[in-house]
Amino acid sequence: MLLRHAVPEDLPGLLDIHNNAVKTLKAIWTDKLDTLEDRTTWFEERTQAGYPVFVVENEAGDVIGFGSLGPYRPKEGYRLTVEHSIYILPQARGKGAGGLLLEKLIEVARGQGYHVMLAAVDGENAGSIALHLKFGFKSVGRIPQIGVKFGEWLDLVLMSLVLDDRVRPPQD
Residue 102 in 3-state DSSP? Predict the structure, then answer.
């Protein structure tokens, strides 16, 4: 597998992965499929704001997953906190792509000076929860029945990783 920065030519693959997750997983809490224009806007907003988007390719050169950092909340008090997303095609899950992406996103978040990295995971997604625990994330809360998809209430598990040992935030 090859991990690299996403480029605009990857957007059709990212769209396929995203829309597959919308149709089949409880991980993305929407039923609305994105268009190529939607994914392009998302990609441009992420990269222009300094948030990376990475892809993983299989041996044939096909994009099988992607991951990105993004803002947690827009208020300046959250400026040292980052949230991430990782999505993998069904046939590639459980084969290491998610770990490659998560490891890289943690490395980049540390390098960009973030203090905390958050994951918001569907409460039934045992694989994602286990992956995050493997990389040092701690489960810091569960919000029951906060979302709905496929006619079911969904719980949200919040997971957190402290990225550095700063006792106090930097002075502005």
Answer: helix
* 22/85 Cα distance (integer angstroms): 13
What does each C-alpha distance from 141 to 28, 91, 96, 118 come to in angstroms? 19, 30, 26, 11
CA distance 71 to 78: 8
Domains, the chain, in order of start with CATH, read 2-117 (3.40.630.30)
Q: What integer pLDDT is reported at residue 171 of this predicted model?
A: 81
Question: How many other C-beta atoms lie within 10 A of the C-beta of residue 151?
Answer: 5
pLDDT, tens only, 69-122: 999 998 999 999 999 999 999 999 989 999 999 999 999 999 999 999 999 999
What gap in Å lies between CA 5 and CA 128, rounded to an integer?
22
- Contact between 74 and 106 under an 8 Å Cβ cutoff? The reply is no
Please tell me the predicted confidence (pLDDT) of residue 146: 96
Q: What is the Cα–Cα distance from 56 to 149, expressed in whole angstroms? A: 28
C-alpha span between 43 and 70 (Å, rounded): 11
Q: Is the pTM of this model over 0.90?
A: yes
